Amino acid sequence: MTPRVGIHDLAFATAHQVLDLAVLAEHSGVDVGKYYVGIGQSEMSVPCADEDIVTMGAGAAAQILDRLRERDGTTDGIRTLLFATESGIDQSKSAGVFVHSLLGMGENCRVVELKQACYSATAALQFALGIVARDPREQVLVIAADIARYALDSSGEPTQGAAAVAFLVTADPALVEIEPVTGLHTDDIADFWRPNYLSTALVDGKYSLAAYLRSLEGAWDEYRARGGVGFEKIDRFCYHQPFTKMAVKAHDRLVAIAGADLDKAGRLAQIEASLRMNRRTGNSYTASIYVGLLSLLEHDEADLAGRRIGFFSYGSGSVSEFFTGVVQPGYRSLLRTEADARALADRTPIGYDRYRALHERVDATTGGDDRTPAETTGPFRFAGVSDHVRRYERTGR
Ligand code: COA
Questions:
Q1: Does 86 qualify as catalytic in the annotation?
Q2: Which of 133, 144, 315, 347 is most buried (CB neighbours < 10 A)?
Q3: Which positions ≥6 away from 167 have C-beta within 8 Å?
């Protein structure tokens, strides 16, 4: 018999500075309502000079490993670490190997990086489920971390952001059991991409929104055709959130496709709690749907135990997947709600000039030796580059 498999633990980290979108609106001469209401974003996390996907990913994963060490006395049960990102720091070596080292994980471990725009964390989840289903003793650590960057003064600029999640995939999961039926959709399009010679993404904004919705329909249709449950059997929904209004638009579309009879308030009630954290971190690309899951579990006032969540994961280019999971009894005792609220509240507010200087600093990277200024208040930092090797260290915080 196939074991029950899914997400056993889920942790969050973000960058340690924040830009209120009112600051950007003032600079751009735009009514802030366009950002706060029109695209549904209030803030964006901005990485310090010594923060990147490794420091954020390690910050999220450390919380899972600490809990595992308390329970088992070791983290050696994790024999696979999958790092999902489209903000890669090296063309060859996985960002996960740096995290593996920073966290002192056992050497009997396979570590690999996955990429397909904002979809890759879901690929990692599905691959992890397969590994655990084949041998229920396996534990797989998935890390999803991204820094969303668009050109200064571009229309994508207010939808930047940064965050990471880490989750542990096991048999008999304590948080969310993932069900086996999925619906898939792939289409070779140029809606959003980042060529090797650019540090910022290119996006055809309106086209990407339409492509997302078309892909949702394709994935949902296949999900249903393969025996997936009807819309009415799904209690909450969790979408990829390049900006939170996208999830609202997507859910409206799914309700229409499924022919469900739900008014605006009813539709919003199924997704609202999943939007709260992304609204404040900004886009975290492949992490964003799982930031949404954490936000849903932490902020939905209803007891979600036994309730089914529908997930729609979309990565431009494009690949998408619709699948479902069932929240497990006792899930609330595993959440780190206060710590996650602090991670958002304790970010240092920055002004426009500081934001712009940091944005331009990334583009100025030369490949020479460089000692990164110590800025982050987080537990890990990117210390700089010497002999073309990236150096990371613990900060002691
Ligand atoms: N108050 C309230 N709402 C306002 C407003 C105001 N003062 N001014 C504008 N708006 C609304 C608009 O009506 C629109 O809402 P709608 O989409 O429901 O019609 C929304 O704000 C955005 O305005 P728009 O003129 O379309 O903005 P834009 O041309 O600057 O583009 C995006 C917005 C989202 C397309 C752009 O930010 C972008 O390209 N972002 C990246 C997209 C992305 O991540 N794609 C990948 C998908 S996975």
A1: yes
A2: 144
A3: 7, 8, 9, 10, 11, 64, 125, 141, 142, 290
Distance between alpha carbon 232 and the CA centroid of its chain, in Å? 27
- What's the predicted TM-score (pTM) here? 0.98
pLDDT at residue 137 in the model: 97
Structural domains of the chain in order of their starting residue, each with its CATH number = 5-175+335-394 (3.40.47.10), 177-332 (3.40.47.10)
User: Does the annotation mark 138 as catalytic?
Assistant: no
Q: Is the CB of 88 under 6 A from ligand 1?
A: no
Å from CA of 160 to ligand 1 middle: 13
Distance CA 150, CA 291 (A): 21
The reply to whether ligand 1 has any atom less than 6 angstroms from the CB of 320 is no
- Under 8 Å CB-to-CB from 341, ≥6 apart: which residues? none
Instruction: Supply the residue whose CA is at minimum distance from atom 44 of ligand 1.
Output: 242
Residue type for position 11: A
CB of 214 sitting under 6 A from ligand 1: no
Q: Which of 118, 157, 177, 185 is catalytic?
A: 118
- Closest of 377, 288, 387 to residue 51, by C-alpha: 377
Distance CA 334, CA 295 (A): 13
Please indicate whether residue 118 is annotated as part of the active site.
yes
Contact predicate 237/251, CB 8 Å:
yes
